[in-house]
Amino acid sequence: MLTAVALLIGYGMVGWPEHVTGAALVVPMVLANLMLGPRTLPWLVVFTMSVLVFAVSLTDNLDGRRVTSILVAFLVGLVILVSSFHRSQLGVAGARGESMLVDLRDRISKQTQIPELPDRWYVDAVMRSAGGSSFAGDFFVASQANDGRLLEVAVVDVSGKGEQAGTRSLLLSGAFGGLLGALPAGSFLPAANEYLLRQDWSEGFASAVHLSLDLDTGDFEIRSAGHPPAVQLMAGSGRWVTHEVEGPVLGLIKHAEFHVVAGKLQVGDALLLFTDGLVETPQRDISLGIDKLVGRGERLLNRGFEGGARRIVDDLGSADDDQALLLLHRR
């Protein structure tokens, strides 16, 4: 059908040159870019440009307006042709290729959403990408036991930021989501480390913090892989406690060991898990950033825990790095 449209436009250029110009051939090429697959699209563009050349060869008078329209049509065809070769690497061209990638992102994102918790618990998770992209190098994965008692959450920071880390982040979020909850808490980070080592990426490392929480008692365990420490608000005393845990980043060392720190969330307590984009900048050391997070967090959370994670990210977040923050509060 699009070839017929191109032929009709070419016929119009020859028969009614004062009404039909070469720019009209942009229409079938743009429609083809949206509708056709990677094998068919280049041939349609070449055919349309051939029609343009043939029609021009039969035209006697070429004024400035017609020359401009011809150049525009050739330029658009060239751009579509080059972009189709890049998109063909995905195997699906045009809007279908882009929608497939977005659908993949959305499906994986649904698997990594924080599950609904009992009323006595409140959780707020916020993730933002550098530059406002939909793809980020930071992500959450979460799992809740069938009996609803044990909650496991991992906050992961993949090397790189924004769209540069987006593809690796998508792959790892799906893989880590499958590991979390399927293994004992102490085996998650070692398994994640081995998985990353097998990928053999040039930038194949990531930091992570893993929380295992008993929702009945409030007892928790935290393990870290080169990640910023978790911070706990002790409601009874009003103090903030930093839970430092040793462990190498994922994807660098075989048979790495990850230590554990245990604690308890009492009624009124809160726990913050975050990535370094929230506390570290080229001009500020991470320890100073954590102090600033605690200070700002104390003031912001005085207004209540509802929406607290978003308020903290709005206040401390930077557009130059990905940021992720999880706020967990025991009511």
Automatic annotation (TrEMBL):
Record-annotated PPM-type phosphatase domain positions: 118-330
Any one GO MF annotation of this record: phosphatase activity
InterPro entries tied to this protein: Bact_Sigma-Reg, PPM-type-like_dom_sf, PPM-type_phosphatase-like_dom
UniProt keyword tRNA-binding, yes or no: no
Record has Hydrolase as a keyword: yes
Listed Gene3D superfamilies: PPM-type phosphatase domain
Transmembrane spans: 41-58, 70-86
Pfam families reported in the protein's UniProt record: SpoIIE
Domain of life: Bacteria
Keywords, alphabetical: Hydrolase, Membrane, Transmembrane, Transmembrane helix
PANTHER family reported in the protein's UniProt record: STAGE II SPORULATION PROTEIN E, STAGE II SPORULATION PROTEIN E-RELATED
Protein name: Stage II sporulation protein E
